[in-house]
Amino acid sequence: MEATLGTVIIYARDMQKSAAFYSNNFGFRTSGQVVEGLIELESSSGGAAILIHQASKGIKLGQVGVKLSFHVPDVEAFKKSAAMQGLKFGATHQANGYSYANAKDPDKNSVSISSRAYRVGKP
Fold this sequence. Notes:
The chain is α/β, with parallel strands linked by helices. The protein has a single domain (7-118), classed as 2,3-Dihydroxybiphenyl 1,2-Dioxygenase, domain 1 (Roll). Helices cover 18% and strands 28% of the residues. The chain is built from two helices and seven strands.
């Protein structure tokens, strides 16, 4: 049996701030309204959606158990554009025919941008 990843749920201390982060920096569409306890963000490119959920006081945020990786054709160009909006990525790393860089969202969750999906001659 196969399943398709359709939604990533992110727990956040400030739901509106997190929704704005993913909307402003990665092009997700959202009304920003809390419906059934969630803020829904849709991918403008047809990828998985994000649901922002209010984190309870007991949830420890910012661990590296999950990292969101966004596919971009040009890591350096994306980094430059993101920096103009205040999002700073770390160093660009080179791998097998692609590059990637890492940052953190407002709740210290790991996010990355990667050109892996666009590499030529995938192994």
